[in-house]
Write a structure and sequence with these properties.
There is one protein chain. It contains three helices and five strands; from the N terminus they run ββββαβαα. The protein is α+β, with helices and mostly antiparallel strands and about 120 residues long. The chain has a single domain, classed as q64v53_bacfr protein fold (Single Sheet), CATH 2.20.140. The protein has a five-stranded antiparallel beta sheet. It starts with a strand and ends in a 7-residue tail after the last helix. The radius of gyration is 14 Å and the shape is globular.
């Protein structure tokens, strides 16, 4: 198993009929982002970087950009695990990762991170 840290941001604008999420997952040297309409699997991007510090810096920068656009935290920063076989498939930054692998990684994050409520 590979340790990962992930969180979710949510954007909702009823007047524009917009309801979407942006998820960020950090591992040793891999940044995984997922953006989708709420409730959908959506698009994934896998970015391999030379160090954990660079992965974390990029994740913070992305999160800050999304918050400026009106996204709010919908799941807290949470540690979870990714199966080694799944991690091996994505660690080179390949965009052709099988759908079931992407779904498992996302399911692991969602199972570990409780959904936040906003008043």
């Amino acid at each position: 198993m590979v340790r990962a840290i992930g969180w979710e941001l949510h954007y909702r604008d009823v007047s524009a009929n917009s309801n979407k999420v942006y998820r960020v997952i950090v591992t040793h040297r891999l940044l995984i982002t997922n953006y989708a309409k709420y409730g959908a699997l959506g698009q994934f991007q896998f970015q391999a970087l030379p160090s954990l510090a660079q992965v974390r810096d990029r994740a913070v920068r992305i999160t800050t950009e999304k918050e400026r656009k009106g996204y709010r935290a919908s799941r807290p920063v949470t540690e979870f695990e990714i199966a080694l076989d799944d991690y091996s498939e994505v660690c080179d930054g390949d965009q052709g990762v099988q759908r079931h692998v992407r779904q498992r990684i996302l399911d692991n994050l969602l199972a570990a991170a409780p959904e936040l409520t906003h008043d």
